[in-house]
Amino acid sequence: MNIASAFQGIATIAWIGFLALLALTILRASRRQPTKGFRAFVIVLFVAALLLTGIGMGTVFLQADQYGVVISAFQQNGYRAQPLGPGLHWITPFLESVQPYSSAKQTYTMSSTPAEGQVTGDDSIEARTKDGQQVYIDASVIYAIDPAHLINLHITWQDRYQDNVVRPVARAAIRDAVSQYGVEEIVSTKRSQLEQTITDTIKEGLTANNLTLVDFLLRNIRFSDEYAKAVEQKQIAEQQAQQAAYVVEQRKQEAEQARQVAQGQADAAVIAAKGAADARLLQAQAEAQANKLLTDSLTPELLQYQYIIRLSPNVQVIFIPTGDQFILPLPNVTIPK
């Protein structure tokens, strides 16, 4: 309870006491009972009640989020030039009064959900896009009064600014902005740009009417049932096309993998054949080299020696008469050149 309300409460009690004592005084007078002391007390209560009422009417206390327009009989246009700010103020009783306004942020919501916005039922904004599609917009406007222009706001709109300014300005701005974009742009690439366009237009409209835009919220965008079905069918077709493309790509990868495996096997066979051929060539070269070395190492004496050794493994000694020939002819030990 503020001090102005306290004075008004005390004044009310004083008036009740005055009326009660006055009634009692009249009753005693009608019964011819003494009323001298009562009459003095009635006068005192009357003066006190009148004084407290004047103080209560002249004292104005505004909360921290309030500003007041002083309606004054002393001013030619009927209003003080400057509004009252938060705190305790004094005005002329009976000749001046104060109309308070809240400077706190206020939200005006237009929604298709019943009881969510200021208007009961579906209050979404119906608009048409640049390509003729019908959309429904849910939005909220957060705004506040401009204390510096409160007098002009009061003179022009009083307390009707929400219905006569905020609502029509916001709805007109949304419809105008939506008409500048295609439906695909609204739902994807240019939604933020659309929101900024609406915000700028609403800000301009509210400023011209002595209000301040705090924020604009584009809550939801809905489409007509026909367009929603078309979008759903398009998405299904795109998903099917993507699936088909994925299958084709998968088959390509499988074919490429099989080709690479076959190529790898062919390359391995070629490498194996080449390796075998190289091995055989090396072996032949080695054998030829060995044969050449063996041929170069043969002498008549070595051949006779080998011949004798191979005659009989069990012969230890051979007696040969002097001047006689061998029993068996010696092999031809002439080495061809």
Explain what you see.
The protein has 337 residues and is of the alpha+beta class. Helix content is 54%, strand content 17%. The protein contains eight helices and eight strands. The strands form three sheets. Strands 5, 6, 7 and 8 form a four-stranded antiparallel sheet that branches. Strands 1-3 form a two-stranded antiparallel ribbon. Strands 2-4 form a two-stranded antiparallel sheet. A hairpin with a 5-residue loop joins strand 6 and strand 7 (134-145). 17% of the residues are buried.
What is the arithmetic mean of pLDDT?
82
- Series of H and E elements: HHEEEEEEEHHHHEHH
| N-C termini distance | 141 Å
* CATH level-four homologous superfamily name of the domain at 106-223: Band 7 domain
Number of alpha- plus pi-helical segments:
8
Topology:
Blueprint lengths: L2 H28 L5 H23 E4 L3 E7 L14 E4 L5 E7 L3 E5 L14 E4 L5 E12 L4 H7 L4 H18 L4 H5 L3 H17 L3 E13 L1 H73 L2 H12 L26
Antiparallel strand pairs: 1-3, 2-4, 5-7, 6-7, 7-8
Helix pairs in contact: 1-2, 4-6
In short:
By secondary structure, this protein is of the alpha+beta class. It has helices at residues 3-30, 36-58, 150-156, 161-178, 183-187, 191-207, 225-297, 300-311; strands at 59-62, 66-72, 87-90, 96-102, 106-110, 125-128, 134-145, 211-223.
